[in-house]
């Protein structure tokens, strides 16, 4: 396995120059374009790492997977899906267009920004502080890492420049898809995106989903089985933004990417994979990360279909 990871990583490095580090959140520009890292955790809890596996980066859109699980734990699923849909949008992750053109004006799914702002608004808590604490605690549990923290520089950078998300959130409130204080919902959304992780954290999240929500070491149930299924299904249909179809064809692995350069992948009953490569393609997915997952899928026969 160690050799496979070495080869796959070397191969993927050739592609980083085709991508660019995200710049629309100014703080993300600081990442090193040529970094590439991998971590795999298999069902027997073997951990394999390679390259810049311990480099820290912000989780960004990968948080949408975890917050969806939380929204489904906190609320009836029929209520959640009255506020956010189940269909791929085919549009970029930050598109606002369908909030006007959809019949219901409901965001298409919880993996695009508009839908994720809705699921964030469904996290329960008596105060903003309690919601934040519950959210961070759940991320720590799923990553099995109590030291996960919010990167406040990225959070502030995004809060200062996130007017597109702000516009969407106000539209969502106007149309009845979120209730309460819009700025408070956005604040929590920006915080969830700014949680700092490395590939080991992502691989751990991946194996927890792969084992249908049961911690493989302790046997503790972290997520209900039906919710872990729903979440992985969304990863297949919508996890790689408007490149989800092609990615599913090429790899057959449920995965979710973020503009920080991370991708979490979850192969049911088999392994969790975390990859990092901040050079992104035009759709916002890690160029090296996609290459690595394609190669690993072929070499280790990870395609679930
Ligand atoms: N695709 C992403 O990772 C987007 C997350 C980012 N925080 C945003 O809201 O724009």
Number of domains: 2
- Contiguous low-pLDDT stretches (5 residues minimum) are none
Strand order of the largest sheet: 2-1-7-6-5
**Please, how many helices?**
13
Shape: globular
How much is the radius of gyration in Å? 18 Å
CATH class of the largest domain: Alpha Beta
Average predicted confidence as pLDDT? 96
Q: How many E-type strands?
A: 7
Please identify the structural class as seen in this structure: alpha+beta
Helix share, percent: 40-55%
Please outline the major beta sheet: 5 strands, antiparallel
Gross CATH architecture of the largest domain: 3-Layer(aba) Sandwich
Report the bound ligands by name, code or SMILES. Answer: glutamine
Tell me the name of the CATH homologous superfamily of the largest domain.
DD-peptidase/beta-lactamase superfamily
Strand content: 5-15%
Distance between the termini: 23 Å
């Amino acid at each position: 396995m160690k050799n496979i990871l070495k080869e796959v990583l070397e191969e993927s490095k050739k592609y980083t120059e085709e991508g660019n580090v995200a710049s629309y959140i100014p703080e993300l520009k600081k990442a090193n374009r040529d970094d590439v890292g991998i971590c795999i955790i298999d069902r027997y809890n073997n951990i394999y790492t390679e390259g810049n596996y311990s480099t820290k980066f912000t989780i960004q859109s990968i948080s949408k997977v975890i917050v969806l699980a939380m929204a489904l734990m906190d609320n009836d699923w029929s209520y959640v899906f009255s506020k956010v849909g189940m269909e791929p949008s085919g549009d970029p992750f930050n598109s606002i267009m369908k909030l006007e053109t959809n019949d219901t004006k409901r965001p298409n799914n919880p993996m695009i920004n508009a839908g994720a702002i809705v699921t964030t608004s469904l996290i329960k808590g008596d105060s903003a502080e309690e919601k934040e604490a519950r959210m961070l605690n759940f991320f720590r549990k799923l990553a099995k890492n109590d030291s996960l923290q919010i990167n406040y520089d990225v959070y502030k950078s995004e809060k200062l420049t996130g007017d597109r998300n702000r516009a969407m959130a106000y539209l969502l409130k106007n149309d009845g898809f979120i209730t309460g204080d819009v700025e408070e919902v956005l604040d929590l959304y920006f915080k969830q995106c700014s949680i700092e992780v490395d590939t080991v954290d992502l691989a751990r999240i991946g194996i927890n989903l792969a084992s249908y929500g049961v911690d493989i070491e302790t046997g503790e149930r972290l997520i209900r089985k039906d919710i872990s299924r729903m979440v992985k299904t969304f990863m297949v249909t919508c996890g790689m933004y408007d490149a989800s179809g092609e990615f599913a064809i090429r790899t057959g692995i449920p995965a979710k990417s973020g503009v920080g350069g991370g991708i979490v992948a979850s192969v049911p009953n088999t392994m969790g994979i975390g990859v990092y490569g901040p050079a992104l393609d035009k759709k916002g997915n890690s160029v090296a990360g996609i290459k690595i997952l394609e190669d690993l899928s072929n070499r280790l026969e990870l395609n679930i279909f």
